[in-house]
Specification:
Blueprint: E1 15-16, E2 26-27, E3 32-33, E4 37-41, E5 47-51, E6 64-65, E7 70-71, E8 77-78, E9 84-87, E10 92-95, E11 100-101, E12 111-112, E13 117-118, E14 128-129, E15 134-135, E16 149-150, E17 155-157, E18 163-165
Antiparallel strand pairs: 1-2, 3-6, 4-5, 7-8, 9-10, 11-12, 13-14, 15-16, 17-18
Amino acid sequence: FEHDRMRCTPCGVDQYQSTPEQDRCELCPSFSTTKTTTTFVNQLGIPFTIIGDGLGSNSSADCLCFDGYFKDANGNCATCAKGQTLDATTLSCVDCAPGTSKASTGTGSCAVCPVNTYQNLPGKDACKSCPLFSTTNGTSGSTTAAACICADSYMLVDGTPASCLTCPKGQTLD
């Protein structure tokens, strides 16, 4: 509403007004916008994108969170830290489970630890490599260092980090 001209004007981009007869629009929460992008595929199979101008929004629901963000219980746009993923049921961030990791922030999924790696702790941003001369024998998602099997004629030696070593001179592996 413009007092000097006495006429109504649409709210601007990233603004909304859900109550009639107000003299100003409310701002969308941080990390959100009223602009919309919709991609369609035409009959020939060619994708095209329609970009909405984001003007004239009449509800905070029109404020859409940026990619990698979600609307939390308070209506704010939030993102998950490294080592966390979004629980869609509770709309909250939860730690990645052991055997998985997530290296970036955002709402993406935790990745299963690849072959020859493991992660024994929850909420981590990387998997740990198996010691030199060991393998998980093709298994991914390992949750302990014990999943790393030393190659023939090597033995696992506890320590930080664990390692696979040959026997010293004068000793044999039993």
